[in-house]
Design a protein that fits this description.
It is built from 15 helices and 15 strands. It is an alpha/beta fold and 521 residues long. α12 packs antiparallel against α14. The longest helix has 20 residues. Keywords: Mitochondrion.
Length: 521
């Protein structure tokens, strides 16, 4: 984890271990956590800038501080009394209370965060409030970022973490691109590209199931379609690899999971687990020329992953993400529960067709069990995956495999999202019982995982829908969409450039587009 975390000391000379993170959110989005990274009253009202250009009346509205939930209170008590310990029975009852409190009371992502944050990590945008501002499309955020020199502040925070690295292999960038933060991210990414020219950027565009709510009228439908198209065009322009994540519903993702779409606590756990798995190759240690050991195999850095997925095959930089959670045990290759067949896509609007001879993929498998219930060896996993690959009707053009024996830990406060058929080590016990309560960290200690990024023709519908929307609604003259884009600050020439960029992204899937373009010229 040293690849993603930094060791340091607080002002009181207390050792700290913090993520190399810059988090940008709405004002009031930190819950009971202050922007300095400590638990307590939020600093949203306390650190307002002094404004001297207004001499009239000032009305001050102060939000009531968010109280810490039972889980955060228990963390605070542990820090204050590390040596105190209750009896085993009392601890068990307390843990059950914590699980129940988290399942029913999470409102902010900080409600279940155990991490200590550096004072440079957490930044709240002025002009964007969690509770009452409409910050729901690309145009609403353009002016917000330009005020108060906020982009300069965000860049300085990132620079702090970059400059203390001996070597930076790349930047993992996560954004909820369903609303105004797509615009914030595009502007932030643009400055990153300017400042760190040779540093690869891997972008995850993550959405919650409730972001797919139905539009109330035609105008909302047009705005939503244009937002998706503009976001894809702008964000993809400033990154090296893009991974869209977020289905309209996760409740049917797998019979081994019990997910409630209305709970962001649940959906975020799936996304985080998948991204944790994908980052494993970046965190493996070099052990020699073959980069293999008894515990891991297939080390990559971000630049190498980008090269594998976007510079080969169709040379497409938008990839689909598939996940098996938990991954099944290694069994006979004819078993329907093998790892390849257990992968479910987390990327929306893609084709079910998986027969692309130009496909390129990178798979990570970790913590898988063998037929006897023990952790499978690296060689066993590699042999099983290669055997399954050989059995596919259409093989990918290139496939990379990273393996680790370390499973995904399921600590408190992980949500209770596993079905009754999942065992203590993530083994699949059998058919789940109707009416059985979902299992969480008290019943499941860890799970084996498999995650795959694939660059193939399956992603074409995702790009095509957005390209067609921009052409139909934005480029055509006299449409309502063209006025919307104008109101968002886009001139006609910039709209045409965005449309051309999306069309260019489609050409690897439709070579005839180049022929048509040449004949038109």
């Amino acid at each position: 984890m040293d690849v993603l975390y930094r060791a340091g000391e607080t002002h009181q000379s207390v050792a700290s271990y913090c993520p190399r993170l810059v988090s940008v959110g709405s004002r009031g989005s930190l819950g009971s956590l202050s922007s300095s990274g400590t638990l307590g009253s939020s600093s949203a009202a306390a650190d307002e800038p002094n404004i001297f250009t207004w001499s009239g009346k000032v009305t001050k509205s102060v939000a009531k501080p968010h109280e810490r939930n039972l889980f955060l209170q228990s963390l605070s008590e542990e820090e204050q009394n590390p040596s105190s310990s209750d009896g085993q029975n009392n601890a068990s009852v307390e843990d059950k209370d914590l699980v129940a409190n988290l399942e029913n009371g999470v409102k902010f992502w900080t409600d279940y965060s155990k991490v200590q944050y550096h004072p440079q990590s957490l930044y709240e945008l002025y002009g964007s409030w969690t509770d009452f501002d409409r910050f729901d499309n690309y145009g609403t955020a353009k002016e917000v970022v330009s005020e108060w020199s906020q982009m300069e502040e965000m860049n300085e925070r990132l620079r702090f973490f970059v400059e203390e690295c001996d070597h930076i292999q790349g930047i993992q960038f996560l954004v909820d691109d369903s609303g105004g933060f797509a615009s914030v991210a595009a502007q932030f990414l643009e400055s990153i590209v300017d400042d760190y020219t040779n540093t690869p950027v891997m972008l995850y565009c993550v959405r919650n199931p409730d972001s797919y709510g139905s539009s109330r009228n035609q105008c909302e439908t047009i705005i939503r379609s244009l937002h998706d198209a503009v976001s894809l065009s702008k964000l993809s322009y400033y990154c090296n690899l893009m991974v869209p994540i977020g289905l309209p519903s996760l409740s049917y993702l797998s019979p081994l999971l019990s997910i409630k779409d209305e709970k962001h606590f649940h959906s975020s756990a799936i996304c985080a687990a998948a991204m944790h798995s994908l980052s494993i190759p970046f965190r493996l240690q070099h052990v020699g020329p073959a980069s293999d050991s008894a515990h891991s195999s297939g080390k990559l850095d971000i630049g190498e992953l980008v090269h594998i997925l976007s510079d080969q095959g169709r040379q497409n930089m938008i990839t689909a993400l598939d996940v098996a959670m938990p991954a099944p045990s290694l069994t006979d290759r004819t078993d329907l529960r093998n790892i390849q067949r257990s992968l479910h896509s987390l990327t929306p609007e893609i084709s079910d067709e998986d027969e692309d001879p130009y496909a390129v993929e990178s798979m990570v498998v970790h913590g898988v069990l063998d037929a006897g219930g023990k952790r499978a060896s690296i060689s066993q996993v590699k042999e099983s995956i290669c055997s399954a690959l050989e059995g596919r009707a259409t093989k990918p053009k290139f496939s990379h495999l990273s393996v680790s024996r370390c499973p995904l830990p399921i600590p408190l406060p992980f949500p209770s999202i596993f079905s009754s058929s999942v065992g203590q080590q993530g083994e699949i016990l059998g058919t789940s019982h109707a009416g059985a309560r979902p299992k969480g960290p008290l019943a499941v200690g860890s799970v084996p995982m498999a995650a795959r990024l694939r660059s193939s023709s399956a992603i074409a519908p995702f790009i095509e829908r957005r390209s067609a929307s921009l052409q139909r609604l934005g480029v055509a003259r006299g449409t309502l969409g063209s006025q919307v884009l104008h109101d968002w600050g886009f001139g006609r020439e910039e709209v045409e450039d965005m449309a051309e960029h999306l069309a260019k992204m489609l050409r690897p899937f439709y070579p005839e587009m180049d022929l048509t373009s040449d004949s038109d010229d």
